[in-house]
Design brief:
By secondary structure, the chain is of the alpha+beta class. It contains 17 helices and 10 strands. Strands 1-2-8-5-3 form a 5-stranded mixed sheet.
Length: 418
């Protein structure tokens, strides 16, 4: 299927992949693919994220990725689970606190929006003091406003717009200056404390050596902290909605969790991909993928898909719903929330039928951290709260102004008597 959209300065034609066997044919060498320049979003995107690890390709991608890979790999994630659990408990105690107890209602996308932000910030920089927290908190609205302008499109897509005395250009210069200053401060602190594991340390060292430039560093840190915030917030929120709508799974999770009562046992449980907990997260992402389509990219050679030739260099996107919901693999109850389906199938069997973190050798760098944070939150919620839908017959509404799928609804959230 072909899809035409307005790009930065021209109409861009995409080839849309909808079938698992076609995904296999196209994405088996995804590490050799070329991501669309600035995600085909134009000038303003180039200034904000055009050089981040998620939007670059080839040797450049390999070099930038190497500075983060160790900190976000599977082996490092177990170190972050205590950190995530600390932030989750603090958020419910200090940020939500009395208001949640009084109202008994939780708006997941609104009330938990900043939770993954602070978890990732501590992974990137180490523990932050009050001044650092205040500075980051002050930068957030500025950064959100810039990304909203990118999504809105219009004049900012064109490179000539950089010469105009617009509020957007002023805001971009202000953000870039403050973001650079904050990260320089974080690097100096990490260097002084001798913390070689902090990603801010390794990335800045790479830039000082000349293997990457500082735009790569700053924009990849932005991607980790700001750009992926909407994605993780959406994933967290839909998990909570599905559990509130399917209450028996809360008790099933409690029974599963009871088999892992020690701190070490809970860590192993959160990391285990063959549990009901992991399956609940996967099922939520299956039914409510982060976006309807994947980021555009092109293969280095021509691909034959369904008898048609896709020429080398042609932008390709994946239709997430065609795979996640409409693939025959999921059976006649494909539209139903039934996490057990992921325990009935092997990871290999699901491989090209399920889009979440990408396909092939190049996948989302933060996938292990994201899963650890989401699973840790679900564990905290089912341990401490009962979730329910105040009006089970009401439509599930999405926030129209957010580029990622976010629910615009509240769930009942009442502390359990244990």
């Amino acid at each position: 299927m072909a899809l035409c959209v307005l790009g930065a300065d021209k109409v861009v034609e995409y080839r849309v992949i909808t079938r698992p066997e076609h995904v296999r044919a196209v994405f088996s060498d995804s590490d050799k693919h070329t991501k669309a320049l600035n995600n085909n979003s134009g000038y303003l995107m180039s200034e904000l994220l055009g050089k981040c690890v998620g939007l670059i390709s080839g040797k450049q991608w390999e070099t930038v990725r190497s500075g983060f890979k160790g900190s976000f790999g599977r082996k490092s994630v177990s170190d972050y689970i205590p950190l995530a659990r600390k932030h989750i408990a603090r958020h419910f105690r200090e940020v939500l606190g009395d208001d949640l107890l009084r109202r008994g209602l939780l708006d997941p996308a609104k009330d938990l929006k900043m939770l993954p932000f602070w978890i990732v910030a501590e992974i990137l920089y180490g523990e932050l003091d009050d001044d650092m927290v205040a500075e980051l908190r002050d930068i957030v609205p500025l950064r959100e406003g810039l990304f909203k302008r990118i999504i809105d499109g219009g004049l900012t897509r064109f490179s000539l717009s950089r010469f105009l005395p617009t509020e957007t250009n002023t805001a971009m210069k202000t953000f870039q200056a403050r973001w650079r200053a904050f990260n320089n401060r974080m690097y100096a602190r990490a260097k002084e404390s001798g913390d070689p594991k902090a990603p801010i340390m390794s990335m800045h060292e790479d830039a000082h050596k000349g293997s990457v430039n500082f735009d790569h560093v700053l924009q990849t840190l932005d991607e980790c902290l700001f750009a992926n915030l909407d994605v993780t917030t959406g994933a967290i929120s839909w998990n909570i909605i599905f559990l509130a709508a399917n209450k028996p799974y809360q008790e099933m999770l409690r029974k599963e969790l009871a088999l892992h009562s020690t701190t070490e046992g809970k860590t192993r449980y959160i990391l285990d991909n063959r549990t009901l907990l992991a399956s609940c997260v996967s099922e939520s992402a299956r039914l409510r993928p982060a976006a309807a389509f994947s980021v555009p990219q092109s293969a280095p050679t021509a691909r034959v898909v369904g008898g048609y030739v896709i020429p080398a260099g042609t932008d390709i996107i994946i239709d997430a719903y065609s795979l996640n919901v409409h693939s025959a693999l999921w059976g006649p109850d494909a539209h139903t929330y039934r996490p057990e389906r992921f325990l009935e199938k092997t990871a290999v069997g699901q491989r090209y039928h399920y889009w979440r973190f990408g396909f092939g050798p190049r996948q989302c760098l933060g996938k292990y951290v994201a899963d650890a944070a989401i699973r840790s939150l679900i564990v905290y919620l089912v341990e401490n709260y009962e979730l329910y839908l105040p009006d089970a017959s009401a439509d599930w509404v999405q926030k129209p102004e957010v580029w990622i799928s976010h629910p615009q609804m509240e769930v009942g959230c009442v502390r359990r008597n244990r």
